[in-house]
């Protein structure tokens, strides 16, 4: 079914949404009034705005749509479905099924489009308003693990796979190669984060050994594909999630039960 939206769809920025846990199938939308990084570190969400059963298997992604569709919430799961929800009612307004599980999915930074990748080895850009696949590609290493949108160019997105991150341009033929390839050699790429307006790319991987700690977190120059960082993170924990609260910070959620914050300024 096609997605129907209204132009006045807008949700106050104080609301956040996230899976409840790594193995949880439900979604919590929280009423959150924190406005800056200091408050994020000082408070914990204690009251839910809405809670609903979203998928039959564990959630892997939750993402708000950009304006003017920001009442829409995207979720993706190992059950193979990418769904869009009307956050005020908890109603599913769009469902894109797949025979294989989803690894990652995110709304585009502009318009009501989203990109997803999964165990079917495909990375797909979808327009839910027309139910049309706008672009589809297969990363060079076969199985994509995560996706991120390029904030510096609307048609571009980053895809991670094993030991490689790639920059793709949706204006090119799907049969063409990636615009840029980053040989990160970090095992399976767990997450990607464009920083400095998309000029640089932070990458985390699952290769954590005594002599390869620098592979857990690295920073790359998007224009040249060159590595910019040495050993940023010295702990032997993987980093499944990267985010940024401000242009000059990198937040790394670790499997050591803590979040590390790094300055996104050279030298790394």
Present the secondary structure layout.
Blueprint: E1 15-19, E2 26-31, H1 37-42, E3 48-53, E4 59-64, E5 72-77, E6 82-86, E7 91-96, E8 102-107, E9 114-118, E10 123-127, E11 132-137, E12 146-149, E13 156-160, E14 165-169, E15 180-182, E16 189-195, E17 200-205, E18 217-221, E19 241-243, E20 249-253, E21 259-263
Antiparallel strand pairs: 1-2, 2-3, 4-5, 5-6, 6-7, 8-9, 9-10, 10-11, 12-13, 13-14, 14-15, 16-17, 17-18, 19-20, 20-21
Keywords: WD repeat
Pfam family, one: WD40
InterPro entries: WD40/YVTN_repeat-like_dom_sf, WD40_repeat_dom_sf, WD40_rpt, WD_repeat_protein
What does this structure look like?
- The protein has one helix spanning 37-42, and strands at residues 15-19, 26-31, 48-53, 59-64, 72-77, 82-86, 91-96, 102-107, 114-118, 123-127, 132-137, 146-149, 156-160, 165-169, 180-182, 189-195, 200-205, 217-221, 241-243, 249-253, 259-263.
- The chain is mostly beta strands and 268 residues long.
- It has two domains: 1-100, Lipocalin; 138-268, YVTN repeat-like/Quinoprotein amine dehydrogenase (Methylamine Dehydrogenase, Chain H), CATH 2.130.10.
- The strands form six sheets. The chain has a four-stranded antiparallel beta sheet with strand order 4-5-6-7, with no helix packed on it. Strands 8-9-10-11 form a four-stranded antiparallel beta sheet, with no helix packed on it. It has a four-stranded antiparallel beta sheet with strand order 12-13-14-15, with no helix packed on it.
- It is globular.
- Residues 4-16 and 33-42 have low confidence and may be disordered.
């Amino acid at each position: 079914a096609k997605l129907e939206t209204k132009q006045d769809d807008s949700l106050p920025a104080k609301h956040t949404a996230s899976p409840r846990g790594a193995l949880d199938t439900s979604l919590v939308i929280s009423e959150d009034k924190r406005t800056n990084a200091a408050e994020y570190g000082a408070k914990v969400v204690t009251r839910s705005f809405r809670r609903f059963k979203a998928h039959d298997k564990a959630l892997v992604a939750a993402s708000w749509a950009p304006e003017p569709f920001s009442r829409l919430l995207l979720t993706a799961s190992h059950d193979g479905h990418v769904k869009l929800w009307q956050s005020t009612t908890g109603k599913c307004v769009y469902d894109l099924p797949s025979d294989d599980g989803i690894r990652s999915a995110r709304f585009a930074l502009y318009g009501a489009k989203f990109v997803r990748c999964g165990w079917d080895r495909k990375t797909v850009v979808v327009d839910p308003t027309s139910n049309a696949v706008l672009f589809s590609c297969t990363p060079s290493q076969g199985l994509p693990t995560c996706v991120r949108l390029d904030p510096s160019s609307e048609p571009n997105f980053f895809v991670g796979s094993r030991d490689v991150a790639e920059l793709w341009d949706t204006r090119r033929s799907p049969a063409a190669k990636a615009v840029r390839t980053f040989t990160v050699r970090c095992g399976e790429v767990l997450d990607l984060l464009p920083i400095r307006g998309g000029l640089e790319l932070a990458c985390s991987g699952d290769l954590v050994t005594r002599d390869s700690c620098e592979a857990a977190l690295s920073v790359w120059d998007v224009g040249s594909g060159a590595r910019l960082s040495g050993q940023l993170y010295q702990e032997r924990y993987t980093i499944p999630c990267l985010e940024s609260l401000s242009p000059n910070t990198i937040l790394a959620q670790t499997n050591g039960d803590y979040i590390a914050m790094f300055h996104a300024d050279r030298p790394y």
